[in-house]
Amino acid sequence: MSVDFKEPFGRFLRLSISECRANLRAETRNPTADLNAKMLEEEIDRAHEAWHRARKPKRKKPIADDAAWIASLKADPAMAGVDVDKEIAKCQFWCRNQEPPIKASRRRIVNWLNKADRVLTAPPLKRDMNAEPAGFREWYIRTRMGGADTYKPWAQLSSDTQKYLLDQMSKEP
What we know:
- This protein is mainly alpha-helical.
- It is 54% helix and 0% strand.
């Protein structure tokens, strides 16, 4: 039978009934044979099964072990920023509390995880040069001759002076 399996089954069936009759006549080796409805129906069923097999995509084998499946979810870059264990527990809790309770299938869990809030990590902030470093006031008073009377607030110092003082603070024990 030479039929394009990518077309819809209704069109495929209309095209193939005449071919099914021709196949049956060829099998019986009598081109003028009167075909009964049962024989034609069986031939059409075979054609339908062939069409269905050709159109149906092959399914991937699911990971059988739940622990391995959850580990694969955690390792997947698409789940970065999602607390997988916590979200699965929330999904299971939600499923148990439906009326009637529903099953927390893998498909439902994946949909739940896709909708989960993600924790975003921000790049480290640059240090504010106007923010006084920890211990600066004590270090300045201790190391300068004038003591507390000559103290200048960090924000009033120039950026070059701030860099120099940070360098000096890091050198002292």
